Amino acid sequence: MKQLDCIMRLSNKFSRLPGVGAKTAQRYAYSVIDMSDSEVEDFISALRDVKTQVKYCSVCGNFTDKDVCDICARRDKSVICVVAYPKDVLALERVSGYRGVYHVLHGTLSPLEGRTPDSLKIKELLARLDGVEEIILATNTDVEGEATAMYIARLIKPMGVKVSRIAQGISMGSELEYADEVTLTKALEKRTLL
Ligand SMILES: [Zn+2]
User: Fold this and answer.
1) Fold type of domain 59-193
2) Protein residues near ligand 1, an ion, with CB under 5 A
């Protein structure tokens, strides 16, 4: 029997989500059929709300539903922790007693994939260095993360701001978001001055 078009269409949408293969996508689609009308409505409005309400903080580039995010509004602005993606802020916020603010680059340098300094939020970082005492570079410890950190360090150090790099407690090449809390806390505590 041929799959109904509307089920196929929903399966295809689910299969676009990260980590969801064709089989799982089909299971998801079938599970929607079994939902109550109100569950489906909730599902739809949750999707729509995320899309309409979430934007980037005008200061740090993290996700927020306001103009300036809660972290920028409340925390110590003399220390900025630089990360590649909003999900990294979440990882670092799960741990440690970090009380500074963040700057989200929205990517890492990768000349091969066309990600140049201009495509990252580096200009925005340079524009907010006034009164800043330390920049902590917390990009991943893989090749691209390292290259990005070194590039930014070379730009900022001559401007008289202290620049540090998170410690390699996170094993080389690994991603921040999957590091456990102890490792991340140590990586931040044992950062080295560049
Ligand atoms: Zn912010």
Assistant:
1) Dna Topoisomerase Vi A Subunit; Chain: A, domain 2 (3.40.1360)
2) 57, 59-60, 62, 69, 72
Compute the distance from residue 3 Cα to the ligand 1 centre, in Å. Answer: 46
For ligand 1, the distance from its centroid to the CA atom of residue 106, given in whole angstroms, is 13
Q: What is the pLDDT of residues 53-64, one digit of tens each?
A: 999 999 999 999
Fold observed for domain 5-53: Helicase, Ruva Protein; domain 3 (1.10.8)
**Burial state string for 163-188 with b = 16 or more CB within 10 A and e = fewer than 16:** bbbbeebbeeeebbbebeeebbbbbb
Sorted by sequence, the CB contacts under 8 Å of residue 3 that are 6+ apart come out as: 11
Tokens for 23? 């089989």
Q: What global pTM score does this model have?
A: 0.80
CB-based burial of residue 11 (10 Å sphere; 0-12 exposed, 13-18 middle, 19+ buried)?
buried
Record the tokens describing residue 27, joined without a space: 């299971």
* 16 SS3 class: coil
Consecutive H or E run containing 125: helix 122-126
pLDDT tens digits for 96-108? Answer: 688 999 999 999 9
